[in-house]
Amino acid sequence: MDGRLWLWPSGGSTGNEIKSAHSAPVSKVASLSPAQVDTAASSGSRGSRTAGRASAAPAGPQLAVSCSYDKTVKVWDVGSVRAKDVAVLRGHSGPVLEMDVQHGGGNIATGGRAA
């Protein structure tokens, strides 16, 4: 496991690597497309749980979300060849091991291990 992400086109065989996506291994990746992220995520003051807010947007960017052992959740704009992070959600005191994205991108729920 490493901190890299790969984007693979559907039906394609050549992927694009996002080098140094995270500074530690990635634990989960999910799609938020199409959605628009509200970067006013919660501060994570409830222990090892935190949540980000995303709302559906009919013509919004193509987004993906990843969580990692580096204690972060990152939201990525994957609509072009060169993906870029559009939000970094912090608040976990340990690795972020689990993530669930509400259908339609309404919410991101994460869980981890306390440091």
What characterizes the major β-sheet? 4 strands, antiparallel
Secondary-structure-based class equals: mainly beta
User: Topology as H/E string?
Assistant: EEEEEEEEEE
Estimated helix fraction: under 10%
Quick structural summary:
With 115 residues, the protein is an all-beta fold.
Written overview of the protein:
- With 115 residues, this protein is mainly β.
- The protein has no helices and 10 strands.
- It has strands at 5-7, 16-18, 26-31, 35-38, 50-56, 63-68, 72-77, 84-90, 96-101, 107-112.
- It has a 4-stranded antiparallel β-sheet with strand order 3-6-7-8, with no helix packed on it. Strands 4-5-10-9 form a 4-stranded antiparallel β-sheet, with no helix packed on it. A two-stranded antiparallel ribbon has the order 1-2.
- The two termini are 20 Å apart.
- Mean pLDDT is 77; it is low at 35-51.
Which helices and strands appear, and what pairs or packs with what?
Layout (H helix, E strand, L loop, with lengths): L4 E3 L8 E3 L7 E6 L3 E4 L11 E7 L6 E6 L3 E6 L6 E7 L5 E6 L5 E6 L3
Antiparallel strand pairs: 1-2, 3-6, 4-5, 5-10, 6-7, 7-8, 9-10
Which key terms come to mind for this protein?
single chain; 115 residues; mainly beta; four-stranded antiparallel beta sheet; 10 strands; 47% strand
